Amino acid sequence: MVRRCVGQSSARGWVMENLDAKSLQAVMSKVKYLLLDFDGPICDIFAGLPAPEVAARLRVALEESGAELPGEVHDMDDPLEVFKFSASIGDRLNVLALEILAELEVKASETARLTPGASDLMRNARRNGMSIAIVSNNSVAAVTAFLEREDLNGQVSYISARSAADPSLMKPNPHLLDQALSYLGADPSSAMLVGDSVTDMEVATLSGVVAVGFANRPEKVKRLADAGADHIVTDMRELAASLA
User: 24, 32, 37: which is closest to 240 by C-alpha?
Assistant: First the structure.
């Protein structure tokens, strides 16, 4: 189901209206630059190697290298949160965390599950003359490995993903999105970002691009709308079909 977000309440909640196929086609016809988050819209990167396990392995690597981790870090299931914490314990351990997390994400990419409709969306977008960039908090190496595995690397013009040890450069900082726009020479008004997280919607709003929330779970619909989504999709195949 595709929804358009119109109007705002005082709590920044949005009234949801369904978009029919023709209306969705009209929206997509204005897009010249398609920007995709990686984990969610393109794949479930931790489908075979769960995120809590990756977070645990990252903690072990840090502790074996001399880091003292507080209790709240041991409770973190999101490896990106462990990586963010690493910035507070010194440059050496921060760089180590960057390298180890990238290695683990590449390993996870071997068993990542392709999101239904993602490959069709990318191929249809290219046939329609769109340029595609990946904008992700995951590592460049992991994104590249997965795209090569699925023979999708030829569809993507640019990968703007995590490569620096500084976690503050990750979304919702607009750095990665603006980097992609700059490389593509894109006018933000003709660009669309599809993402499944609140930070994706926030960064799209900051950069002035159309924000499409991929609500792959029902509870995400309101969350993404509240974060500023212009449109909500619950199935990537609907976006792909709009370009077929």
Answer: 24
- The 10 Å CB-count burial string (b at 16+, else e) for 93-115 is bbebbbebbbbbbbebbeebebb
Encode pLDDT of 19-78 as tens digits. 677 888 888 999 999 999 999 999 999 999 999 999 999 999 999 999 999 999 999 999
**How far apart are alpha carbons 134 and 144 in whole angstroms?**
10
Instruction: Note whether 85 and 64 are within 8 A (CB).
Output: no
What's the chain's Rg over C-alpha atoms?
18
Question: What angle in degrees, to the nearest 10, is found between the helix axes of 51-64 and 79-86?
Answer: 30
Cβ neighbours for 100, distance < 8 A, ≥ 6 positions apart:
57, 58, 61, 62
Q: pLDDT digits over 94-126, tens only?
A: 999 999 999 999 999 999 999 999 999 999 999
User: What helix, strand, coil percent values describe the chain, rounded to 5?
Assistant: 50, 20, 35
Q: The tokens of 63 are what?
A: 């502790």
Count CA within 13 A, CB hemisphere, residue 216. 17
Please report where in the chains the tokens 């595995």 appear, as a residue.
149
- The predicted model scores a pTM of 0.92
The helix (run of H) or strand (run of E) holding residue 35 is: strand 33-36
